Amino acid sequence: MSKRVLAAALTAVLAIAGCGSGENTPAGPRTLKLWHYEGPDSAMGVAWAEAIKQFEATHPNVKVAFEEKGFEQIQKTAPMIMNSGDAPDVMEYNKGNATAGLLSKQGLLTDISQEVAKRGWDKQLSPAIQTTARYDEKGVMGSGKWYGIPNYAEYVMVYYNKDMFAQKGIEVPKTLDELTSAMDKFVGAGVTPLAVGGAEYPAHQIMYQLALTKADRNWVDRYQRYTGSVDFHDAAWTYGANTFADWVRKGYVSKDSAGVKAEDMGVSFIQGKHPIMITGTWWYGRIAAGIKDFQWGSFPWPGMTAGSAGNMWVVPKGSKNKDLAYDFIAITMSQPIQDKLRDAGGVPLVAGSSPAASPQIKELTDTFSTLSSQDRLAFYPDWPAPGYYAVQVSAVQKLITATASAGQVLDEIAKPYQENLANVGK
């Protein structure tokens, strides 16, 4: 499809949806202020750049003022920014009770329920995907009003260096025991198996992944959606913390990783310094573009895994151009842009209109479909309580540096969770 035809198609879609210039739309040049934190060479960054081009092509009197922000930056400053006159018109934001849920409860996000029904986004997104877009009056996800639109999907998986595996004669692991055995062989050869970021994610996510190997859906719902009491010293949490600490002792995880940021972790894997990296699909496009000197692959984490709809577009309450924000969201959810995201290595939420660009990309999207259909997506460990991301990062750092026991770390994680229950009336 040519860009001219695509632009015409998108214009028709927007017109049918009742978008574009409405009765109360200001005349003359306008600006859409957009924030997101996807790198330009990531799958989402590539897709959103194309969406901006298509938006400007279908809105000739509008200029998109895009500002790239860091994930950590938005995570820490969003409440303050949303409560000021500097809020963007539309921004990417993290989903879950501790982030989007908290801002919705504080009245800082626009209730877009009416717009969702008008544009058919509720038909486009499956009930499971809608979980992270809807929040009740207490800021708890899963029901209530719509405060965002997820625009891609994601899950945590295992990336591996095929060449390093082949050199050691190691088969692709299919179970946790096989993964552990593979890491033992690398340690025996003087190689630290795991590329890990402990100063940010994903160290705390890896501990959660380990806990999930002993968990089920009921366990996840009690923790994430407050459907029952949570015991942070149960079999699953205890296994996760003890096993992560054991991985450090065995040399699977470098003690220096406590000071490593996620970006540096990814770069170290791309440079071939570690044979394994456990992290999200959001790295897929970056890895595919960055690795030049060796063959690599990926495989699913055995059992349940952290994952859900990806981050989502939200419209701040103070947005001055909400009509334009909705139009931009509609373009990012269009089939051509979702195909662009898929072929750049992302996981789309909208079914493709053409075959995937490669067998690897087809495998990536097929795996998400399998995880979703088998109910194996378990959200993320830092979602349940405000400020929980920093708490969990700090706690798991102590497992890496051996400055706290597994039990002490679980106590540290439990405290803010239990305190938050009072705030949500649970």
UniProtKB/TrEMBL annotation:
Keywords: Signal. Gene3D superfamilies: Periplasmic binding protein-like II. Residues 1-17 form the signal peptide. It comes from Kibdelosporangium banguiense. This is Raffinose/stachyose/melibiose transport system substrate-binding protein. The keyword Signal applies. InterPro entries: Bact_solute-bd_prot1, SBP. It holds the Pfam family SBP_bac_1.
